[in-house]
Amino acid sequence: MSTPIPVSRSPMRTLVLSLAMLFLYGPILILVIYSFNSSRLVTVWAGFSTKWYGELFQDSLMMNGVILSLSIAFMAACAAVVLGTIAAFVMTRMGRFRGETPFAFMITAPLVMPEVITGLSLLLLFVAMAQSFGWPTQRGFLTIWIAHTTFCSAYVAVVVAARLRELDRSVEEAAMDLGAPPLKVFFLVTLPSIVPALLAGWLLAFTLSLDDLVIASFVSGPSASTLPMVVFSSVRLGVSPKVNALATLIIAVVGLAAFIGWWLMARQEKRRQAELRLQAEA
């Protein structure tokens, strides 16, 4: 029986880890604390207050930005999952074909291309289309959604393609040998196997779209301002305590979602371990 390897608990290791955690999460903690500051100056503590949360929900410009960003992020993530999955299947299941290398390069180009270049290219495209075809008549929700779907699809394609390359194709081949058509094999065998990758790609696309500022600034119009654009324009005039309140709410939602996900996975793992123990005892 092998002896367990002792874990190093040197004071220097603990100090370095503590400093790293303080560097990463210290500013977030300060932001949360100052979101309850009663002073209009975010650097001067004047007492505990929740008035900035009330003013945040009364700020129509910021609330409209939240609704617009969530709507675009949801729709862009859904469209990116569809397009990215199709691109992933082409790259991993179509075999060798003419133009395979340029196709893979064009799919993955948004991963390494600066957002300024992507935003400017899409802006010129929309302007040229408006002059040639009369569409889009104005830039706003639709153009932002198209732009976000474009660069989010690349991330989804990479995630799904990695899962497809690891997938055992013998199960799919066995299903087709038993007479199942390719479409039925996809929905009953392949799709359930890549669901975790699809969910990961959707969450990644949703986060990237919700966080984007540069590309949205190029392709948006005066009638559409996403949340990052609203926050950036307000911060340029000075950090408002309402921004701290908004950031605190976002942190709380993300933290709650992460905790629920961890709890569900831990519960599933405990159930799996219990089933394995029952099988071993039987």
Layout of secondary structure:
Blueprint: H1 11-34, H2 51-58, H3 60-93, H4 100-112, H5 115-133, H6 141-166, H7 169-177, H8 182-193, H9 195-211, H10 214-219, H11 227-235, H12 241-281
InterPro entries: Bact_Polyamine_Transport, MetI-like, MetI-like_sf
Transmembrane segments: 12-36, 66-91, 103-130, 142-164, 185-207, 213-233, 245-265
Family: Belongs to the binding-protein-dependent transport system permease family. CysTW subfamily.
Note the run of SSEs as H and E: HHHHHHHHHHHH
Record field, number of beta strands: 0
Please outline the major beta sheet: none
CATH homologous superfamily title of the domain at 74-248: MetI-like
Summed over residues and divided by their number, the pLDDT gives a mean of: 87
- From the N-terminal CA to the C-terminal CA, the straight-line distance is 25 Å
Low-confidence stretches: none
- The name CATH uses for the topology of the domain at 74-248 is MetI-like fold
Shape: globular
> Which structural class matches the secondary elements?
mainly alpha
Q: Please give the CATH class of the domain at 74-248.
A: Mainly Alpha
Strand content: under 5%
Compact description:
The protein is an all-alpha fold and 282 residues long. It has a domain at 74-248: MetI-like fold.
Walk me through what this model shows.
- The chain crosses the membrane at residues 12-36, 66-91, 103-130, 142-164, 185-207, 213-233, 245-265.
- This is Binding-protein-dependent transport systems inner membrane component.
- InterPro entries: Bact_Polyamine_Transport (IPR051789), MetI-like (IPR000515), MetI-like_sf (IPR035906).
- There is one protein chain.
- With 282 residues, this protein is mainly α.
- It has a domain at 74-248: MetI-like fold, CATH 1.10.3720.10.
- Helices cover 77% and strands 0% of the residues.
- It contains 12 helices and no strands.
- It has helices at residues 11-34, 51-58, 60-93, 100-112, 115-133, 141-166, 169-177, 182-193, 195-211, 214-219, 227-235, 241-281.
- α3 (60-93) packs across α9, α4 (100-112) crosses α6 (141-166) and α6 (141-166) runs antiparallel to α9 (195-211).
- The radius of gyration is 24 Å and the shape is globular.
- The protein starts with 10 loop residues before the first helix and ends with a helix.
- The model has no long low-confidence stretch (mean pLDDT 87).
